[in-house]
Amino acid sequence: MDMKTNMENIKLEHFSDQVISLNHHDLANAEKLPGPLLITTKVQYETYYSPFDFIKEDAKVVIVGITPGMQQAKNALLKASEILKAGGTVDQARKEAKVFASFSGSMRNNLVQMLDHIGLNQYLGIDSTQSLFKENDSLVHFTSALRYPVFKDGKNFNESPLKLKEQVIAWFAEECKLLPNAIYVPLGPKVADVLELMIELGILNSEQVLIGLQHPSPANAERIAYFLERKDRTKLSKVTNPVTIDKAKQSILSKMRFLTKGEDLVA
Fold first, then answer.
1. The domain that contains 201 carries what CATH number?
2. DSSP H helical segments within 21-151, as ranges?
3. Total structural domains within the chain
4. Label partner for 139 (CA 20 to 30 A): which of 44, 61, 129, 219?
5. What is the pLDDT of residues 211-253, one digit of tens each?
6. What is the pLDDT of residue 100?
7. Can you name the residues that pair with 40 across neighbouring β-strands?
8. Other CB atoms within 10 A of residue 40 CB
9. For residue 1, is it within any domain?
10. Maximum distance among all alpha carbons in the chain?
11. What's the mean pLDDT in 58-86?
12. 190 or 7, which is more confident?
């Protein structure tokens, strides 16, 4: 499918036949996603369909990653295929597949700890943001700057989403317009750049974007530990810049105080 195709047509209902016909064993062990799910190619980048098009328009918080990785993409496809094969509706499959595949494993644990640490749970009136993955999932919308999984030379894409700006504008910007009053939490500086673009375009306001949260990847363990005040500054390795983390955290906490108590923002 060429990107010139109407991008609104890139939804589960237009790929349901391919998703239903997936062989679960083959997909689970495959190194690439099936060819019929390929949306577009650009130089060495390939974008595939996986059911991440569900948008929770009444959510109060939007968690934004770079793009779904291979495992997330497979998990979403397998869950959607399972639901459709059992006679479930497309809308049911779209919703459940996305929730099932979003930020699983240790990434989820790290994310919850940081969100609770900045007081997002208190803002939402819940005990812990852990419940956003269970009983309070109606409060959160999980998404990516690049909605559908992108791979570079067959590997998970981990570059600036703005390299594929046409996809950011086509899908992510439209999601932001549907969630104009939510709090946005970009994960990592590459995603933060995309949110800065949304602010520049007038789609979002800077007060509602919490830039500076550390990416929840296990590879980011030391920065997360420092952010959570579990590792002393004097014991940090040279690859971790405490000044940058402290400044970002101060900005986030200032915005949280503004959002919860109406206090003035601290520059």
1. 3.40.470
2. 24-29, 70-85, 90-101, 106-117, 120-124
3. 1
4. 219
5. 999 988 898 999 999 999 999 999 999 999 999 999 999 999 9
6. 83
7. 47
8. 20
9. no
10. 58
11. 94
12. 190
Written as six digits, the tokens of 49 are 């369909």
Residue 266 resides in a domain: no
Mean per-residue pLDDT of the chain: 91
Backbone angles phi, psi at 138, to 5 degrees: -70, -15
Out of 76-80, 98-102, 140-144, 166-170, least confident range: 98-102
| Dist. CA 264–CA 22, nearest whole Å | 53
Q: Which amino acid is at 164?
A: L
Q: Is 180 exposed, middle or buried (0-12, 13-18, 19+ CB in 10 A)?
A: exposed
Rounded Cα–Cα distance for residues 217 and 187 (Å): 10
- pTM score, whole prediction: 0.89
Element (H, E) at 225: helix 221-227
Q: In what order do the strands lie in the sheet with 150-152?
A: 38-42, 45-48, 150-152, 155-156
**238: exposed, middle or buried (C-beta count within 10 Å: 0-12, 13-18, 19+)?**
exposed
Q: For residue 209, what are the contacts with CB-CB under 8 A and spacing of at least 6?
A: 183, 184, 186, 195, 198, 199
Residue 76 structure tokens:
């979403």
Contact 231, 195 (CB under 8 A): no
Q: Which domain holds residue 171?
A: 7-261
In-domain check, residue 81: yes
**Residue 115: its pLDDT value, please?**
96
